[in-house]
Amino acid sequence: MALARNSPCKVNLLLNILGKRADGFHELETIMQPVAYHDRLDFERAASGVTLTCSDPGLPVDGRNLVHRAAAQFLEAAGIRDGVKIHLEKRIPLAAGLGGGSGNAATTLLGLNELFGSPLTPEKLQQLAATLGSDIPFFLQTKPALAVGRGEKVESLAEFPALRGKVFLLFYPGFGIATAWAYQTSHASPQR
């Protein structure tokens, strides 16, 4: 059995960085909006383990990749001894603030749950998503959302009337910015 799913991205309509937390993360308050621009993930059951391939040769396909980690954690949490083959067709730019990797991880959790007959509840998928990364829980749902904490606490919002029928024009300058650097720099003291 095989399954294919689109993996969306997002934009932050509002992002307040409220300060650094004791756990090293930053306390956030953000409104995220899904955007209809996708990567594609193809899933297929296999005898054992996680095999990941990717159209972008620059992306790792081992445990350093969020898709691979999400798949491994899903199989373990669901008690599944079978494995999975996954192919990631990458279109969303890396390190662009669009949450492409987070969307890929969430789509992996949802796709594998469907592929293996829904062994995990939505609550368990939320828990797995939160352990994998801060933006990942957002992508388990399809609406705009308010996210707080380090971004893992998500409350779905109604569609914004002002955005109905509108499109987002996204411009990628050809380079990315690491999230960790951006957050650290946002709290750096100004030079005198």
Tell me what the structure shows.
- The structure is a single chain.
- Strands 1, 2, 3, 4, 5 and 6 form a 6-stranded mixed sheet that branches.
- The termini are far apart.
- Helices cover 25% and strands 32% of the residues.
- It is α+β, with helices and mostly antiparallel strands.
- The protein has helices at 66-78, 100-115, 122-132, 179-186; strands at residues 2-20, 26-46, 50-54, 83-89, 145-149, 153-156.
Total helical elements: 4
Residues in β-strands, percent = 25-35%
Briefly note the structural class of the backbone.
alpha+beta
> Secondary-structure element order, as H and E?
EEEHEHHEEH
N- to C-terminal distance: 62 Å
Estimate the global geometry from the Cα principal axes: globular
Counting DSSP E segments of at least 2 residues, the number of strands comes to 6
**Poorly predicted runs:** none
List keywords for this structure.
192 residues, alpha+beta, 6 strands
Fold blueprint:
Blueprint (H helix, E strand, L loop, with lengths): L1 E19 L5 E21 L3 E5 L11 H13 L4 E7 L10 H16 L6 H11 L12 E5 L3 E4 L22 H8 L6
Parallel strand pairs: 3-4
Antiparallel strand pairs: 1-2, 2-4, 2-5, 5-6
